[in-house]
């Protein structure tokens, strides 16, 4: 997707990590929008931080609304309960594209009001 060779990716993913974006304002907005869980539409959501590697930092630009069950526990499909199936169902690029759309909405709205 990015046109970087496998070797470069491995090098890149070693110790050098991009500084993660953190925003309490975005998290507060995210929880105030009435987003439902992307799996079951339950309105009681948690923010799942999308990660490429489990050692990656949590970056607030990449969060998805999930209910507690599908976030943490489901053996059927859950990023923390059954990560392999989760990634097959929601590949990284799909997760990031959903997360980015939500983040862009917030960015545009906060530009309007500032
Ligand atoms: Zn759910």
Largest sheet: 2 strands, antiparallel
Overall shape: globular
Low-confidence stretches: none
Please tell me the overall pLDDT: 89
Percentage of residues in strands? 5-15%
The total number of structural domains is 1
**Ends distance:** 34 Å
Explained architecture:
- By secondary structure, the chain is mainly alpha-helical.
- The protein has one domain.
- The chain has five helices and two strands; from the N terminus they run ααββααα.
- The chain has a two-stranded antiparallel sheet.
- The protein binds zinc ion.
- The site of zinc ion has 8 residues, from β2 and α3.
Write the layout of secondary structure elements.
Layout: H1 6-13, H2 24-32, E1 45-49, E2 63-67, H3 68-73, H4 83-89, H5 92-113
Antiparallel strand pairs: 1-2
The site of zinc ion has 8 residues, from strand 2 and helix 3.
Keywords:
binds zinc ion; 9% strand; 114 residues; 46% helix; 5 helices; mainly alpha; 2 strands; two-stranded antiparallel sheet
Briefly, what is this?
The chain is mainly α. It has helices at 6-13, 24-32, 68-73, 83-89, 92-113, and strands at residues 45-49, 63-67.
């Amino acid at each position: 997707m990015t046109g970087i060779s496998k070797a470069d990716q491995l090098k890149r993913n070693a110790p050098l990590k991009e500084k993660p974006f953190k925003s309490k304002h975005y998290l507060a907005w995210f929880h105030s929008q009435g987003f439902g869980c992307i799996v079951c539409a339950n309105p009681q959501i948690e923010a799942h931080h999308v990660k490429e590697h489990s050692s990656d930092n949590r970056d607030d630009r990449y969060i998805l609304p999930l209910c507690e069950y599908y976030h943490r526990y489901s053996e059927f499909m859950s990023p923390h309960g059954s990560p392999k199936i989760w990634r097959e169902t929601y590949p990284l690029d799909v997760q990031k594209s959903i997360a980015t759309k939500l983040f862009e909405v917030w960015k545009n709205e906060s530009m309007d009001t500032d």
